[in-house]
Amino acid sequence: MLEAFYRLGDNPFRMTPDGRNTFHSHAYLHGKTYLRQALREGRGIAVVTGRPGTGKTTLVRDLFFDNDSHQVISNVVTSHLEAEDLLRMMAAGLGLDEDELDPDRLFRRLQKALVRRSKRREREVVLVLDEAQHLTAGAIELISWLVGARQGGAFAFQAVLIGQEPLMELIESREGRLLRDCLNAVYHLDPLTEQETPAYIHHRLRSVGWEGDPEWEEALFPLIYQHSEGIPRRVNLIGGRLLLHGALEEKHRLDAGDGWLVISELLEESLLDPPRRKGGGSGMVYA
After folding, report:
1. What is the pTM of this model?
2. CATH says 192-269 is which class?
3. Cα gap 201→206, rounded to integer Å
4. CB 240 within 8 A of CB 272
C-alpha cells in the first residue's frame, strides 16, 4: 500500500538484509578495510561483534561479494551447533560426502581435502559462523584445531565469527582460550552516528525512487536517532511504520508528531525497546 501511495519501487525499510542498498557509514567502511586486510594476511580467526541489527552479517557478506581469493564453504547460524554437525556442514561445502557415518573418518577426509587445495594453491577456505556467541566447546575445539593447522603451514583455512557482545565474553573465558590463541583481528561495529542517521534514511528512500514524497520534517531525525540509537534495524522499523502511517492517513509531510505517535505504538507493542544508556565504542585488536 505505501509503495503505491508514494509511488516507490519497493519498501525502502525492509527488515531483511539487502546488500543492494547498503549504506556505508564510517564504522562500516572502517571495518570492511580492516577485516579485508586481516583476510589478506591469511591467518587465524577474525571476529566481528556488535549489537543486534547493526549490520554485522551484511558487512561480512560484503567482504566476500567480489572476493575471488577466498571460498566461503559454510555460512552458518550456530544456534548451539555441535562439532559433528559443523564438521558435516564444512564437508558438504567442500563437496565431500557428509553422510559418512564415522566422524573421525570424515574429519580425516576434510583434512586431506584442505591439504590438497593448499598444494594446488586454490582459493583460501573460509568458515563463516553467525551468532557465534552460542558456540559449543566441541565446535570451538574443531575450529581452533583447523586454524592452528593452517598457521602451522598444513593448509589454507580461516574463520570469521560474527556475534553479539557476549561473543567476546566467551572468547575471554576459560572455554574460549583456544579461540583466543588464534585471533587475528577483532572489530566491534558501532551503530550509526546522529549525523549519519538522516543520511541513512535518505539513502534508503532514494534507493527505491523517492523524489521528496513524503517530505520528512527535520525534527523527525533526532527523534528517530534517540529511539533507534542509530541501529539500522531499528531505524528501518520506525521508518517503515512511519511510511505506513503516512499512507493510511494520506499525508505528504511527516512531522515530529507522526514520529511520536509511531514510536509510542512500537513501544506499546514491545517491538521497540526503550533506549539504553550509551557505552562502548569501535575497537580493533591484533592478536
Report:
1. 0.86
2. mainly alpha
3. 9
4. no
